[in-house]
Amino acid sequence: MADQRLEEIRKIRLEKAQKLREMGINPYPSKAKGPTTPVATALDSMDKKVAVAGRLMSFRSHGNVTFADLKDETGKIQLWFQKNNLNEQYKVLNLIDIGDFLYAEGTVAKTKSGEISIDVANYQILTKSIRPLPSIWYGLKDEEERYRRRYLDLLLNDELKDLFRKKAIFWQSMREFLVNKGFLEVETPALEATAGGADAKPFVTHHDALDTDFYLRISMGELWQKRLMVAGFEKTFEVGRQFRNEGLSREHLQDYSQMEFYWAYANYEDSMSLVEEMYKYVADKTFGKLKFTITDQEVDLKKKWEKIDYRDTILQNTGVDISNADKNTIVAKLKGLKQEFNEKEPRERLIDNLWKGVRKGIAGPVFLVGHPVEVSPLAKRKEDNPKMVERYQIILAGSEMGNGYSELNDPVDQAERFKTQQKMREEGDVEAQMHDKDFVEALEFGMPPVTGFGISERLFSFLADKPIRETVLFPLLKPEKDKD
What we know:
Number of helices: 15
Strand content: 25-35%
């Protein structure tokens, strides 16, 4: 019945569009008759002549008077059509519907009810809508339908639209912070012959002209930005899209934005100080505050960011000492904790799963340090304990919210770690890193001491306290089944 009703409405509106054409009125002109004023400005222009353009969100006729609400990106204003003012143009209102785009000229005045309105002297149809909008009161309730018709969700939900304005500020302020600190924004390849810079399963695509398979990048150019350090650049960063062929969750996407920076002649301690300052700057610029409630946990970015140790924290919460525990012990503990994992995974990956179970109870903000070499194939070893690396992760509301380290620049050590990772891949670990011989060659020419850091748009979703898909304009969905 709903589909039948929709087809009836479409038919009527298509007929209206045709009648407009027969009257010599183009229902889809290329532009408005003249320049327009934002609705927000028009609302403050009492007794002045203005011209506005936008979508009709309501439309109601009362004999010789018709009222409509017109909405643009800045707000909503009432249009007041009077037959005496419009003469023949008034009749054309019969061919207008809610959802149409209109240009209207007139004087800003108040109606008898006291509502600020535009007393329309002239108007132009800009777009004739064929499908009716969902009810402004009930909107789109089904989650998949909201994501699939995101443009309608945004049209009817000003709060959601404001969320994406904040997201734009989030990235703009991060860029602003880094540029002010002397970093240069760069662009690195999105297609790679060797996927590197992270433990993740990549997407594979085929390049017809080169007749070669390539990978969509899984990091924000980590190994490329390090090559730039070899080339003599000292502070670089990139913001862009990266892709990981992994599962969906409240925190995970396969196609998302990430920022990574690389800083020569600095180490992970310097990076921690810079990142703490950056998070506070970005949070304040984006949300105007430093205290947040995230998944029912209170997070205060203003307080002192403590350091916690990877091994000690796992030991305190599980009783397992990862420095000497064998694989069977770790598997038994994961089963006891009812943590999701794959028994066939190598010991390194099982340790990471153990940590993921522990971190859920940490509100933060804290710096997690003391990572073992096994879980950090690109980080520099600690001089006083070569089994550990100079790495940190930021923990907020039980999740990892940023990853940084002193970059490994010893080509011999890097080659050996790549070999270990390659062996893990051959044994079935699809997230283990590939052996990038070209990168090792670049290191052999010499890379200065460097620290690097990466953060994804997950930080924004957490500060907004929203599932990450809700903070994406157009989340990835399966193709809709053919209704025919």
